[in-house]
Design a protein that fits this description.
By secondary structure, this protein is mainly α. Helices cover 76% and strands 1% of the residues.
């Protein structure tokens, strides 16, 4: 019996010795997970002063619940979305470190425009088709005039004795795509205002849907060209280029968070922006009446400034670092994606949802877009930049903003006297 007792007691002592080891491993594992989560939250929300605006989002929900004042809910939602849009761009940049510069640039443009697309989907769901059209149009105008103008201006001020240059061939290609988008938006408007439709009330919508499908195919071809032309040195993304004088390591940046953290933050931020966007869209009409501001001004000027927060910050930062190709890719690339993908995509989604969204943006808005594309294409034709070009683009945006502030949209009931 003694050997059995010894064996039994040995097994018990072994289990007792294993239990603390297992408990210690589980404790330190949980502690490591919580430490990683807390560190990731600190990096995401405590690393930039603009994050001080984040509490305005929950405050907008509380104000809507207790008071229902549309003016304040709209204003607070607007402020709350600004840092979230900027953080969405930051999370995309973090993911770009792991996907490479070309795919990363496409991801940056896509998620940079996620705010506009989310707002557009909610507006379309509520039948606010003019808000969809005007907010997407305003995003193009904001990127091409305000964002690019501020980037040129800040880059020129920081580097006053140096002529900043960028890849002219890429700029010409983007300008060509923007002109193609202008063509897609121009013909339905001309068809409508000349009253030359073959089938009144139907040809305009049919032409818009056909043109949208063509534009989507063209944009897919553009993406394919970007992904497959890396072997051509003239189209090598600027982030892939190295400067031998810099030593290759001084300006090299590293990600702040892991790949999986980037994906998680992208999902969380997109979800939160979706929630706030619903409050924002629901209060647009009420805010227009409460603040006595035309819906056209809210849709074309205020909403895009919020949605372009990430692009605005990124473009200026890269211009200050004398990386003007990236600034141009952020501003013009985002405008190209909205005009060639977001707008026709919304038309197709509206087709599926039974919403008659078309490419007739009305005469005033279409003329504004045409002039904007022509001005920017003229500014980019020599491949150089200075602070005065940036100043002119910003002044052009101020003129556009003032024009929409006094513009009465004939399609909007709220703007009618």
């Amino acid at each position: 019996m003694e050997p059995q007792d010894e064996g039994h007691s040995g097994s018990v002592s072994t289990k007792r010795n294993m239990f603390p080891v297992k408990a210690v491993v589980e404790f330190w594992g949980k502690k490591y997970i919580w430490s990683t989560v807390i560190t990731s939250i600190k990096i995401a929300f405590l690393s930039d002063k603009i994050n001080l605006l984040i509490p305005f989002g929950p405050l907008a929900i509380l104000v809507d619940y207790f008071t229902g004042h549309h003016g304040w809910v709209f204003f607070l939602s607007l402020l709350g979305i600004i840092p979230l849009a900027e953080r969405l761009g930051w999370a995309t940049e973090q993911l770009a470190f792991y996907t490479g510069p070309t795919v990363g640039g496409l991801l940056n443009a896509t998620f940079g425009n996620a705010t506009e697309l989310i707002i557009s989907m909610y507006a379309m769901k509520h039948g606010m088709l003019r808000v969809v059209q005007q907010s997407l149009l305003g995003s193009i105008l904001s990127n091409m005039l305000l964002v690019l103008g501020c980037a040129f201006f800040c880059g020129g001020i920081v580097h006053p004795n140096k002529q900043q240059v960028f890849n002219k061939s890429n700029a010409v290609m983007s300008s060509g795509l923007l002109l193609m988008a202008v063509m897609g938006l121009l013909f339905p408007a001309v068809l409508h205002f000349t009253h030359t439709e073959l089938h009144f009330g139907k040809s305009e919508l049919a032409l818009s849907r056909f043109s949208s499908c063509i534009m989507l195919v063209a944009y897919c071809g553009y993406i394919f060209f970007q992904l497959t032309s890396q072997r051509n040195n003239s189209y090598t993304p600027i982030m892939e280029e190295t400067n031998p004088d810099d030593g290759g390591s001084d300006d090299e940046e590293s990600p702040d968070i892991s790949k999986y953290e980037s994906v998680i933050w992208l999902s969380i931020l997109t979800l939160v922006i979706s929630v706030l966007s619903e409050y924002l869209v629901n209060t647009i009409e009420g805010a227009s009446v409460a603040m006595n501001i035309p819906i056209a001004f809210i849709s074309v000027i205020l909403l895009p400034i919020v949605g372009n927060a990430a692009e605005h910050a990124s473009a200026i930062i890269f211009a200050v670092k004398d990386k003007l190709d990236i600034s141009l890719g952020v501003a013009i690339g985002s405008s190209t994606q909205i005009s060639m993908f977001a707008i026709p995509f919304c038309v197709v989604v509206g087709w599926i949802m039974g919403r008659p969204l078309d490419l007739n943006f009305q005469l005033f808005e279409t003329a504004t877009l045409i002039m904007t594309v022509l001005v920017v294409a003229f500014m980019l034709q020599d491949g150089t930049s200075n602070y005065f070009k940036g100043l002119m683009l910003v002044f052009c945006y101020l003129i556009v903003g003032a024009s929409f502030f006094v513009h009465v949209d004939p399609q909007s009931i709220q703007d009618k006297p």
